[in-house]
Fold each of these.
Amino acid sequence: MSAVEGRKRRIGLLGAGVVGGGVIELLRARGSELGLELARVAVKDRTKVRPEIPSEVPVGTIDEVLADPSIDAVVELIGGLEPALSAVRTALEVEKDVVTANKLLVAEYGGELRRLANERGAALRFEASVAGCLPIIEIIEAGLIFDRVERLFGILNGTTNFILTRCQRDGSTYEDALAEARAAGFAEADPTLDVSGRDTAQKLAILVGLVTGRPCAPSSIAVSGIEHLVPADHLAAEEVGCRIKLIASFVRTGEGGRARVAPTLVPSSSALGLTTDEYNAVEVECAHIGWQLHLGKGAGRMPTASAVIHDLITLDAARERSRETESKGRRPALDLAASDAWTARWLIRVPEENPAWPVSRIGAAFAAHGVEIVEYRRSRRAGVGTIVLSAETTKGAIDRVARDIAKLQGAVKIPVVLAMEPDA
Amino acid sequence: MSAVEGRKRRIGLLGAGVVGGGVIELLRARGSELGLELARVAVKDRTKVRPEIPSEVPVGTIDEVLADPSIDAVVELIGGLEPALSAVRTALEVEKDVVTANKLLVAEYGGELRRLANERGAALRFEASVAGCLPIIEIIEAGLIFDRVERLFGILNGTTNFILTRCQRDGSTYEDALAEARAAGFAEADPTLDVSGRDTAQKLAILVGLVTGRPCAPSSIAVSGIEHLVPADHLAAEEVGCRIKLIASFVRTGEGGRARVAPTLVPSSSALGLTTDEYNAVEVECAHIGWQLHLGKGAGRMPTASAVIHDLITLDAARERSRETESKGRRPALDLAASDAWTARWLIRVPEENPAWPVSRIGAAFAAHGVEIVEYRRSRRAGVGTIVLSAETTKGAIDRVARDIAKLQGAVKIPVVLAMEPDA
């Protein structure tokens, strides 16, 4: 659907939950002056009383919204794959623009849906799906007009960053920090998606798809979560001037790139290190303009609703740009390096102090796999053990070193391996 | 001029210098897919050979561009007040959209030009006028859909930040650092506009106008520059864990606000403290979403040109929003606090060590004006002298304290007074 001239853009809203309620509130308050009009709302439970929906707006089913020919744009806030996926497909088929906050949908089906949108001359927007409060998709797309993203590092999940901040700052255990995150409303009843790193991987997949112009499946991204971190890991990080953050990273390499999500050491006095509590941050390094950093709260009802409204008022500009993105989208899927081949500098924490393990024994494990030691120190703090920093090497090599250390005589615990951010 | 349907938006370019050349380059490379077409270029010197301009594009005078009825949008890259102001006025009068990178023009005449644009149904955009590479105007406008900016702190001038970084990091004098900035291409032959803080004040005036919806004249902003800082000032800042940055700040207070530009102490390990070299940074604190930080290079040919292109492809969305901004713009001019009434915590550096001045004498100067001392220390570093940190008080009061200290028996130098950022 092309530019709507001389009348308001009519919006069909799918889902009237927390964010949907925020969108309704903004449309009531500002819709008229922004050229937007709420035409219809689809809800799951039609018996529920919803005083926020104006009485003149029909409330019904998804099909009723999709079948209404007067509707220009559909806002999908159902979440999850179905029925959201079918609804978005149908909306685009009938040439309605779509705005969604659904990261799973965009991460898994973004390539297909963008192609469909372009075939039908419709726009597909999803600013609210990544770092709700930061217009990171707009920023990357604007930058892509002339530039090329070489590296991207992000803290994309507020829940895990809240937990890690509590662990690092207060010495909380993972379990206590998780309980605190729940009490503060930052963690779901089932936090698995967040703490496993999979939520972050979905968001990273969306950003990688954007910066490379080629679909990136979340499953192609190596992921590790924060569930296994213990207080001693945070103390070890602190000893080397760092903090542990759940970092989503993409580094371009030739035609492909490396993308992964992992607990990573970043310098305490770096922008990412200073990103605490429920904040998100995205660091983007481009070929021409160098690096940029954007830091702010990642989620919340009104910020997310505001991102949706912003997508709605920039649909026409987006339609132009997406044609270009789509033509790149037909290129083959991205060649992401296998997780074993990922190189970094690493911290190995050997949690046991064992007089039978002089530096020479641990050093031999590194030497056996051709990995250089850059720093070696026995921590004076109880329970931390020995900290070894390696030179740059592959994940495969450092894992082999860790396995050899675990086989030393008397070892009962497996060493902890953590990546270090390039500048750490 | 409203949405351009079914054909390319025709662009008239005023000025083909550094940024103008970048705009031409981007239009040649990407214009077609973005729905933009270079229609005419106006240059000062028509005899100069300009191979970057496609041969089919007429090159002529400003009047020829303005008189061309086929042109939808005018890009003003002349700079300065005249003839830029008259050209922009005429363009808006004849209902052409205008995109400009001219900070002086927007700072001084933004209110009038916005009203004119709205009367004629045209859009006026100026993303490239502030922090070229960071889409800060877009970010603030998007946030204003539902939120309210309470405080804004920014490093908005790359030249001065480059100079201050050299002074702080390398111990350079102001003069040496300025020479280095010139050699690196970051300073003009006449750097007065930058180092006096006036360039920053123009940009701040634009941002304050945006966040308050009311015109803010640059002349209403209290400004002090960086020309008078000496190496000992940077050492004093370092002793209290801070760095000196040229900070533009706005703090909302009731119906008005406080806006100023001054060398200010920020914590070394804060986002603004970590903003080094020619980088810009803007910290925005909103009522609902809390604070955000955006950090990146402030200027450059392609980033600035890209901001212009971005303004061009979002003209329709901007037109809707500017109606709202304009209605607020008719409110009375902002009540900015007089510079004397500005409160902050302060650092006073008494550059002389004088045995005739025990803490009691300096303390008495503070007490006489009701200003509390929070920290007092004699620096062990040569030439730094005594550092005193005050509790929050007005600029007027701290200046009176400084004047009293300067009158102490044997004093030859005037104490240096520096504001501290709220979180320092």
Amino acid sequence: MILVVTLNPALDVTHRVPGADWSGVNRPAAVRTRPGGKGLNVARTLHALGAQVHAIGFIGGLTGQAVRSGLDEAKVPATFIAIAGDTRRTFTVVDDARGRVAGFYEPGPAVTGQEHLRLAVLYKKKLDGCAAVVLSGSLPAGVPADSYATLAKVAADAGVPAVVDASGPPLLAAAAAGAAVVKPNLAELERSTGRRLTAASGRPDLAAVEQAAAGLRTAEAQAVVVSLGPNGLLALTADQTWRAVPAGPVAGNPTGAGDAVAAGLALGLSRGEPWPERLRQAAALGAAAVAAPAAGDIDLADYRPELVGVRVVTARERTCR
Amino acid sequence: MILVVTLNPALDVTHRVPGADWSGVNRPAAVRTRPGGKGLNVARTLHALGAQVHAIGFIGGLTGQAVRSGLDEAKVPATFIAIAGDTRRTFTVVDDARGRVAGFYEPGPAVTGQEHLRLAVLYKKKLDGCAAVVLSGSLPAGVPADSYATLAKVAADAGVPAVVDASGPPLLAAAAAGAAVVKPNLAELERSTGRRLTAASGRPDLAAVEQAAAGLRTAEAQAVVVSLGPNGLLALTADQTWRAVPAGPVAGNPTGAGDAVAAGLALGLSRGEPWPERLRQAAALGAAAVAAPAAGDIDLADYRPELVGVRVVTARERTCR
């Protein structure tokens, strides 16, 4: 079982509007509504891959009910702490005609100390017997910045490795607290470490990325996996630096690709697979997620060929080429 | 009591985003959620004016529940026929920095014949003792285009005058069926009659508007009120052509101004006020609605000074000046 903690879930509403008029009235050609937020995307991807998964988090109001019924429909098991606030929405406008995607993300409700406490109790209970836990996404107001660190520490003490997908102080704190894997993307790693990690060409400066990632590796067992968009993954594990590079560029919507990567890392971790295999799966899932029409969706027909195409190399191989 | 029929209500979600990025992620500075759709805007405006009002219509799913609870909160009495489909949402992005408003209107659920029948029964029951009825907004799929005509005829037979705010075939059919007042705006009148009603200056061609409106006046008792945005109203009544012109231009969001005009017309009709007074109130409400931050909101502090400023003249006076 993989436990997925999602403290700030959302109802994702996507409107497809060919040729959007940004100062007029639009009638969307298609409307999709689904449970979202990074954690629930991870949970749905794991479920699509056939993994045993359980999501926990906060939920409130009618939007929260819509999230819950969407998960029920998708048959993703979940237990939520009901909160007084209303679960947030995200609203995405996809303009296929212009190849533009605009996202409007509501801030989400504040969580009380009492509600937070109830989640901590639920977390400890659900952690029992899990093979891995994923802590993913933004923290709602009212939840302290070191929450992921605390949850990762509780998991480590229970012998359950944690994958943390976050940014800023929560990421740094979780890394320091002994998360098994932290997975920032390039922008998050830049923000979290305050370093510029992009070369003048616009491509990631891999040496700088490796150095920044090394700064996050504080414990022996800990790994840092940086998702680099179309450039795949860079991973620092206990004894190696890896790259996992997809076969080629994928057209589509990159929203949620990082969540698919986190799902792949958690799955590999839960199955005790060696790092090259974990990274291959994670990179292929990231590419397949870009091809999928909505965040958190994975079409296994996209995933399988990507899996074959991913090239996993060590830093040494990279240097030799 | 004024009965307001709203066959395709909506949950209106408004995001205020200063300097929206239409190809990136935005974090709205403010989020407002409220019952919407033209009919419910009319009902809320009438309620704010202290009128006795009752809304009826179709509602479904969790979005429908949110509409209902929003009306409960606003203390607007309403009775809904529950439908299998999900009530629609509208998303509005207000970019104050650029003075742009973009609307994304979902199509709304289809209504079954059985559901439609149940509404007709509710309508007849609620009509009893009403002083006026408002039929406003788009028709959901599954509802025949002559529905407003049928409902207006039922009202007329029961001695209750109907105000119809619609466009296209439903407007034409309702006008022919003896609606007491039909209220298209300029664009709707253009679409409904297939005539060009705007002068080269961009201002309404008042002679052409009057002629087009006259084409809708088929019964003796019937009046046509055309809302002309910042240029106020043009009304053809049984024995006169009127203009009602606000004191000056109002800055703000014109969405919902037409609904405020319809509310003003229904209120005047229900109180048996003379036409100049009805038109004065309707034009002032339209102007006050533009000043209000969201559609369906009226601040009485905006309305009262507008009321003083509106100039109501007959066509003869207009010609003489």
